[in-house]
């Protein structure tokens, strides 16, 4: 491809609204352009990278015995109403009406549509198992779209769904997909971890997120420093034994703590550490008020709380709700003298506490010498806190460390979460009707592309891995007006094309400095520069990632390129 005939608009300046490297570089290098908040067009060179990523995904999906299809972007509201997600999915679901006032959703995900198809088309156990996938744009009305392709309102995704007559069959498909994802992200050259994750709005259980390690990631990974254990921080269980003090409980004492609104302020006022106080937070759990207690230096894990109650919705109670239930606002909430209408649950660490402090349910006051199960009752103790760095690893090997990660893939065992309400059934070998069992497997294609840039760039620009780069070779003719340079560059360009090498030929009438800067910015793995020794048939060959360069004779060029591509 001749660069003079290509839409490749590079920029010198960093866009004002681009905060992270991938966002900045993909715009500056001419891969994407912003249309609206969270919405981007892929320009020709960006589209080539997308297609290369897709090709790897398709190859691994084929190996995993999945079959590609293409579903609709608009989905009837009736399907979402059958599963209950028309309302529960929330404002991220983009809804609309046609001219007949029929309601539709723009596809945020496709569990409902694929289940409807299977319900209509699969009738017998003989048609199972079955795995289907598509690569398609998805739409979610993100409240705060940011970080370019990492959090958008329109994005490209590969979503796959498997259908089974037994959980044993689902387990086998899950393992195949897990391995396929491992292969995909390994082939893309990413530094990633597969971590235990929460299903969230998707439902189901037994699932893993594939996380690309990056400081700009919005998710926190808890991992062992000596084993392969890794989990999303929301899902990491706390496997820790707390020793109860042998100290005898003392008499309660109410102490004034004016202007103390936080645990840290109360601890300072009362002269103790955070670990010597009980933190109490009020939650609304499916319409019921629940007080959750943790040690002062711990944080409530709302996912664990949701799972404890098998709840559809949990959220922090408002200050008004808290005051109506307890007679106090935030800052003085505590478990003593609480109405029976408020259930009290506590993290396991609280059970071991003796003679500590807590809010007195009176503005500006706290109790000291508080002992759980002596001064108040707890209905249930459970693991309700976030794991912390330095805690024992849940697998019993090493201690927990934290890392930031970008979620690029997610595999779920959905079970009958969607098939049950949508009545997707099949007849088994005995003629009995059974509900189809499902798995779900997603990869954010455009998000993966951005994640690659986060891990593959330097101060000059992108450094694409060769298997997904938009082109393998960037051919530069430094002065196209010089006949010997133009002739040699044209000969090399023709030879590379004839040999099937993807080459971008910079034949523009631009200064050498502009061409070098653009080449570094775009990040094609191998650069061939036709310059001052063109009359001798000698060019400069430079590897973008390593920076290694050498002078090469024309006759050696193809062999050197072939050798480089085999090794990279």
UniProtKB/TrEMBL annotation:
Pfam families: HGTP_anticodon (PF03129), tRNA-synt_2b (PF00587), tRNA_edit (PF04073)
Enzyme class at the top of the EC tree: ligase
Record's keyword terms, sorted: Aminoacyl-tRNA synthetase, ATP-binding, Cytoplasm, Ligase, Nucleotide-binding, Protein biosynthesis
Catalytic activity, reaction form: tRNA(Pro) + L-proline + ATP = L-prolyl-tRNA(Pro) + AMP + diphosphate
ATP-binding is among the record's keywords: yes
CDD domains named among the record's database cross-references: ProRS-INS, ProRS_anticodon_short, ProRS_core_prok
Gene Ontology, cellular component aspect: cytosol
EC number: 6.1.1.15
One BP annotation, GO: prolyl-tRNA aminoacylation
The Aminoacyl-transfer RNA synthetases class-II family profile domain, residue ranges: 33-465
Gene Ontology molecular-function annotations: aminoacyl-tRNA deacylase activity; ATP binding; catalytic activity, acting on a protein; proline-tRNA ligase activity; transferase activity
Family assignment from sequence similarity: Belongs to the class-II aminoacyl-tRNA synthetase family. ProS type 1 subfamily.
Complex and partners: Homodimer.
Function: Catalyzes the attachment of proline to tRNA(Pro) in a two-step reaction: proline is first activated by ATP to form Pro-AMP and then transferred to the acceptor end of tRNA(Pro). As ProRS can inadvertently accommodate and process non-cognate amino acids such as alanine and cysteine, to avoid such errors it has two additional distinct editing activities against alanine. One activity is designated as 'pretransfer' editing and involves the tRNA(Pro)-independent hydrolysis of activated Ala-AMP.
Comment field on protein domains: Consists of three domains: the N-terminal catalytic domain, the editing domain and the C-terminal anticodon-binding domain.
UniProt cross-references to PANTHER family, sorted A to Z: MITOCHONDRIAL RIBOSOME PROTEIN L39/PROLYL-TRNA LIGASE FAMILY MEMBER (PTHR42753), PROLINE--TRNA LIGASE (PTHR42753:SF2)
NCBIfam families tied to this protein: PRK09194.1, proS_fam_II
Protein name: Proline--tRNA ligase
Native organism: Pontibacillus marinus BH030004 = DSM 16465
């Amino acid at each position: 491809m001749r660069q003079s005939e290509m839409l490749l608009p590079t920029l010198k300046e960093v866009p004002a609204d681009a905060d992270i490297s991938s966002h900045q570089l993909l715009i500056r290098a001419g891969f994407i352009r912003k249309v609206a908040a969270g919405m981007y067009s892929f320009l020709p060179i960006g589209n080539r990278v997308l297609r290369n990523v897709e090709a790897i995904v398709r190859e691994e999906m084929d190996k995993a015995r999945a079959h590609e299809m293409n579903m609709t972007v608009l989905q009837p509201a009736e399907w979402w109403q059958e599963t209950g997600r028309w309302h529960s999915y929330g404002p991220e679901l983009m809804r609309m009406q046609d001219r007949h006032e029929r309601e539709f959703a723009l596809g945020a995900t496709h569990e409902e549509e694929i289940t409807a198809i299977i319900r209509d088309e699969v009738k017998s156990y003989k048609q199972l198992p079955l795995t289907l996938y598509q690569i398609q744009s998805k739409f979610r009305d993100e409240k705060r779209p940011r970080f370019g392709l990492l959090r958008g309102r329109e994005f490209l995704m590969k979503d796959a769904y498997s259908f089974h007559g037994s959980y044993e069959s689902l387990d086998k498909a899950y393992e195949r997909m897990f391995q396929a994802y491992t292969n995909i992200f390994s082939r893309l050259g990413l530094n990633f971890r597969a971590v235990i994750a929460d299903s969230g709005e998707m439902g189901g259980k037994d699932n893993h997120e594939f996380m690309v390690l990056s400081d700009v990631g919005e998710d926190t990974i808890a991992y062992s420093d000596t084993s392969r254990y890794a989990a999303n921080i929301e899902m990491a269980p706390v496997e820790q034994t707390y020793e109860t003090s042998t100290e005898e409980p003392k008499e309660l004492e109410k102490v004034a703590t004016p202007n103390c609104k936080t645990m840290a302020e109360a601890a300072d006022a009362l002269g103790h550490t955070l670990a010597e106080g009980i933190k109490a937070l009020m939650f609304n759990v499916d319409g019921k008020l629940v007080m959750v207690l943790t040690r002062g230096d711990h944080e409530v894990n709302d996912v664990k709380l949701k799972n404890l109650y098998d709840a559809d919705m949990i959220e922090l109670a408002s200050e008004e709700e808290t005051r109506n239930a307890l007679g106090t606002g935030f800052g003085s909430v505590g478990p003593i003298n609480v109405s029976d209408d408020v259930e009290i649950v506590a993290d396991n660490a609280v059970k071991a506490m003796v003679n500590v402090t807590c809010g007195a349910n009176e503005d500006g006051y706290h109790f000291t010498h508080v002992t759980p199960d002596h001064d108040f009752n707890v209905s249930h103790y459970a693991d309700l806190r976030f794991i912390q760095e330095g805690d024992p690893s849940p697998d019993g090997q090493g201690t927990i460390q934290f890392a930031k990660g970008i979620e690029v893939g997610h595999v779920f065992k959905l079970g009958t979460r969607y098939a049950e309400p949508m009545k997707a059934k099949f007849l088994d070998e005995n003629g009995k009707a059974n509900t189809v069992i499902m798995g779900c497997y997603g990869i954010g294609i455009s998000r993966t592309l951005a994640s690659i840039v986060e891990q593959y760039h330097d101060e000059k620009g992108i450094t694409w891995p060769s298997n997904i780069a938009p082109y393998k070779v960037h051919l530069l003719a430094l002065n196209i007006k010089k006949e010997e340079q133009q002739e040699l560059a044209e000969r090399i360009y023709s030879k590379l094309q004839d040999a099937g090498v993807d080459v971008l030929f910079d034949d523009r009438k631009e200064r050498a400095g502009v061409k070098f800067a653009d080449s570094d910015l775009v990040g094609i793995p191998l650069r061939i520069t036709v310059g001052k020794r063109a009359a001798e048939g000698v060019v400069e060959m430079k590897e973008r990632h390593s920076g290694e360069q050498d002078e090469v004779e024309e006759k050696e060029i193809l062999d050197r390129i072939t050798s480089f591509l085999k090794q990279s």
